[in-house]
Write a structure and sequence with these properties.
7 helices, Ribonucleotide Reductase Protein R1, domain 1, globular, alpha/beta
Length: about 375
């Protein structure tokens, strides 16, 4: 579908196209912006005539969307119905009636239609852990988006330490950026990399994501919090997803922190290798098209010396175990019975549930 740049004529209806900029609880901030819509030519956008734009509406989502199994994400293009008062009062509240097709989407944080992921880690307090960083990078690569690596707190370590991490990530296939939210080192280059992009910041808590955003967004002061002295880990300071306009152009999202050491990427075992940019150029050299690059004969990567091979195999086995668990049959021999009975299971005889648990009994 082609983009329709003309605004909607008066009296043609009470809907318009908008972009979900922020979400909190059951409310959404929807931006009405023809210039932003022009970046998405596949969207057939329409806007109210003779109204000042850009503008924002405070919206709720129609219950029918939930019944249809659809959830509104930050970054979504949506169709919004306007109340009658919108004819004389603008901007006003609205209701999200439909979600337009997405280019991309991330499940965690839940955000749609972004163009790049900024993976932020700290060089100190907390120190980077290679496997946790790799797991986070694989999650980002699985989104098929542009991935930028940012090392914050470069002022807290010796220059040699920072340089060693930069060279290490180059061997992984990235061009990491060394920055400091405190001294502003590297911030101009970070601004350049974010220009005209719709970016999301991802990384574990305590690495300084909100502090970096405060440097990029002088007019927005996000809440920050010191690293826990006891746990040497950060505390979550961001509670919801929100997109902010960058002064140089583009948008950037602050998102809740999460534990990068958990989670399996949403890819198949055969697709996993594509999440490792350091070996992509060698793909297609294997004897078998479905090669998993483990013990298969004729593997084109077998003789390649790459640091993350051990981590790749670990993650491959996790994916295979998860795949096998999802296809395994349920524990046989269970049937429903009345209250007061217990659960016993041939495969789980060590687990006995009392009346407070689900009530099942073996034949």
């Amino acid at each position: 579908m082609s983009h329709r740049s003309a605004v909607q004529e008066e009296g043609q209806g009470s809907t318009c196209t908008g972009w979900v900029r922020a979400a909190q609880a059951n409310f959404y901030r929807v931006r009405i912006d023809p210039e932003l819509a022009a970046l998405f030519p596949e969207i057939e956008a329409h806007f109210p005539a003779q109204k000042p734009m850009p503008a924002e509406l405070l919206c709720t989502a129609r219950a029918k969307l939930k019944k249809m199994g659809q959830s509104v994400m930050v970054g979504d293009w949506v169709e919004v119905s306007l109340p009658p008062a919108a004819d004389s009062l603008w901007p006003e509240r609205g209701a999200i009636e439909a979600i337009l097709p997405r280019r991309t989407q991330l499940p965690r944080p839940a955000i749609a239609n972004i163009t790049q992921v900024l993976v932020v880690m700290a060089l100190a307090e907390p120190e980077p852990e290679p496997n946790a960083l790799s797991r986070l990078l694989v999650q980002a690569e699985a989104s098929h988006l542009r991935v930028q690596v940012v090392f914050n707190k470069c002022d807290c370590v010796e220059a040699a330490v920072a340089e060693s991490w930069r060279q290490r990530l180059q061997r992984w296939g990235y061009e990491p950026l060394l920055v400091s939210a405190l001294t502003e080192a590297g911030i101009p280059e970070l601004r350049r990399r974010c220009r005209d992009q719709i970016s999301v910041v991802a990384g574990p808590s305590g690495v300084g994501k909100s502090s970096l955003l405060n440097r990029l967004l002088p007019a927005v002061q996000l809440t920050t919090q010191a690293v826990s002295e006891k746990l040497r880990q950060g505390r979550h300071t961001t509670r919801h997803v929100e997109l902010f306009p960058l002064p140089e152009g583009g948008w950037i999202a602050d998102s809740p922190g999460f534990n990068a050491g958990e989670g399996i990427p949403p890819v198949s075992p055969q697709q996993l290798i594509r999440c490792f940019p350091e070996v992509r150029e060698r793909l297609g050299t294997c004897q078998f098209r479905d090669c998993l690059h483990d013990r298969e004969p004729g593997c084109g990567l077998r003789e390649l010396d790459w640091e993350r091979r051990g981590f790749y195999l670990q993650l491959l086995h996790e994916l295979q175990e998860a795949q096998a668990a999802n296809s395994a049959p349920a524990c046989p021999g269970l049937k429903r019975r009345g209250e007061g009975h217990h659960l016993t299971c041939r495969k789980q005889s060590h687990r006995i549930l009392t009346d407070s648990d689900l009530d099942w009994q073996e034949d």
